[in-house]
Amino acid sequence: MIQCIKTELYKTMHNRYFIISLFSLLFLIVVHIALDIAPYYGMIYGEYPETVFNHWIGLQLSSLSNIYYMVVVGCATLPVGMVYIEERQHGYMNQMITRSNRTKIAISKLIAYFVTSFIITTIPLVFDYMAASIFLPSIRPIAATTYYTISGNSFLSELFYTNPTAYLFIYIGIDGVLVSFFSLLVVLAAKIIENIYAAVCCPMVVFIVLKVVLGFINAENYIPMRILYPSTSEGVETINVVMEIALVGVIGIIGIICEVGKYET
Predict the structure, then answer these.
(1) The predicted structure's pLDDT at residue 265
(2) Nearest CA-CA partner of 73 in 182, 227, 195, 232
(3) 16-30, 72-86, 131-145: lowest mean pLDDT where?
(4) Mean pLDDT over all residues of the chain?
(5) Cβ atoms of 188 and 196 closer than 8 Å
(6) Which DSSP symbol is given to 59?
(7) Where are the alpha helices (DSSP H) in the chain?
């Protein structure tokens, strides 16, 4: 099992798609650092200094932040999707079935795809936090001000105003989990869509469509974008986050299990 997981991880993380995805997100982070972090070194807004907690990319309401959270699902899906679809097209799965059992293959792929997408999602966010910590102080936010994008009814707002560093890392973890589960949807997309690039783009398209549809039916608290992006999480509750992660995760996991199970021995 361990060797099977290592093999799957090697395939998803040692290819040009992984590099393209990770460096695309890191490029956005570098631009964010140059435009929205470094210039504010030592600055004071009124009585309050500019801090990490109003300049980290997830805690700013800006076009660049919106772009990041809009494309992160597509970037996280690209390496796992391309590797999986290329295997599917070349009949590699049938060869694996003859050398191992379906359970090991399904679990190994699930772990490798999840870990790869999680790394792509979280490393840029951590890097942005580290850069913000270099240029700006990590002063605990003051709830009485209106200087921060996290309001009293934003998701985990109490934690933000009591232990903002823990809040930030917990949120990065939530983002990593939700995006990773969205990336698993590429397995189901590959069963329906023949074009390899259209199939890889499908999870991001679903992510965007849900934003429009759930907004239209007044279910804004379940919009994935609002859950991923802390600054837009006003009104989002723990139950919304848990249900979203559970639903997307179950669909993605079932997709992998069913796909592996259909191959011949």
Answers:
(1) 43
(2) 182
(3) 131-145
(4) 87
(5) no
(6) G
(7) 2-13, 16-32, 63-89, 92-99, 102-135, 157-162, 164-183, 185-192, 196-216, 224-228, 238-261
In the structure encoding, which two tokens stand for residue 132, read together? Answer: 């913000």
Average pLDDT over residues 136-157: 85
Tokens of 261: 């199970």
Q: Which amino acid is at 142?
A: I
Nearest to 70 by CA among 203, 167, 264: 203
Percent of the residues in the chain that have a pLDDT greater than 70, as a whole number: 91
Helix (H, G, I), strand (E, B) or coil at 45: strand
Q: What type of residue sits at position 167? A: Y
C-alpha distances in angstroms, 84 versus 13, 168, 175, 188, 255?
A: 12, 32, 23, 11, 13
Coil, helix or strand for 175?
Answer: helix
Positive or negative torsion for Cα 136, 232, 72, 170: positive
